[in-house]
Amino acid sequence: MSLPAAETNTTVVVTGASSGIGAELARELSRLGHHVTLVARRRERLDELAAELGDATAQPADLADPAGRAELLGVLRNSGRAVVGLCNNAGFGTFGRFWELDPDTEAREVTLNVVALHELTAAFLPQMVNRGAGAILNVGSVAGVQPLPGNATYAATKAFVNSFSEAVHTELKGTGVSCTVLTPGPVRTEFMEVSDGTDLESRAPSFTWQTPHDVARQAVDGMVRGRRVVTPGLAIKVASTSGRLTPRPLLLPLMRRVYRKS
Residue 232 has what pLDDT? Predict the structure, then answer.
């Protein structure tokens, strides 16, 4: 077991907790008895979820802003609770040809999906290793196993998350701490709407879509067990393997057609 049992003076931090997978991760962890620190930009949603869970703290923060990250870390260090688990779920995607997209939004995407995840992991991992117990869950994506024309920045950020997480997991062997990467496929959340990709939803076969609850349940189970990778669903496991093995000259034109916006 990697994620230790809940104690009165510990917490598990969940970023991007205001909706979707993040909210469901918080619910699953709460069911296991953990105090959960809920992090996202939308205070109202965090307060509602904290009230629902009971043993939870809402901590609004903009993790794409260095000041927001610094404030969050300061609050957690002064909270009196040891961070025994960290779920790096916050992130978003963009769709379109890279040079036609807003460069500030693309830079913010890299900052939130990669820099914030990297910084929070670096902040809490040494303490977990010193205690000999703890678990990191990083939300990657099946999108990160191959380049995706039309979704270039997002896929690249998730390639970083996937690779970084697996490497750190291996480095942690024997410490009592684990780093699990979750690599889901399509999930019924606000992601596509926020990413302005709703016209692409119908292109994914219905059997590949999963619910946030199912994905979060499998993710937390993997986190507790200290697994290296959690890929929910047989169809996504097949897609992940295909993305790694298909020659790029065949794969890239296909992905370009799939991810081309109407």
Answer: 83
